């Protein structure tokens, strides 16, 4: 069961997906807040969500 913070983070990312810089900023915040297993789930979700929005995938570089 996803935590409230994880669900909230996904909803925020969906709302700011119109702006790649804002999307990356919110993704970076999420990396500081979420638990390790939630970060893995979020990464999987971002990969699926950005399939048709490749300009948003640059935020995945923050994982390195």
Q: What would you say about this model in short?
A:
By secondary structure, the chain is mainly alpha-helical. Helix content is 62%, strand content 0%.
Outline the secondary-structure elements.
Layout: H1 4-15, H2 20-33, H3 36-49
Q: What about the largest sheet?
A: none
**Subunit arrangement of the protein:** single chain
Global Rg = 11 Å
Number of helices, counting only DSSP H or I runs of 4 residues or more: 3
First-to-last CA distance = 27 Å
Envelope shape? globular
| Average pLDDT figure | 90
Uncertain segments = none
- What portion of residues belong to β-strands? under 5%
Number of strands: 0
Structural class: mainly alpha
Order of helices and strands: HHH
Name the helicity range.
55-70%
Please characterize this protein's 3D structure.
The protein has 64 residues and is mostly helical. The chain has helices at 4-15, 20-33, 36-49. α1 (4-15) runs antiparallel to α2. It is globular. The protein starts with a helix and ends in a 15-residue tail after the last helix.
Key attributes of the depicted protein:
globular, 3 helices, mainly alpha, 64 residues, 0% strand
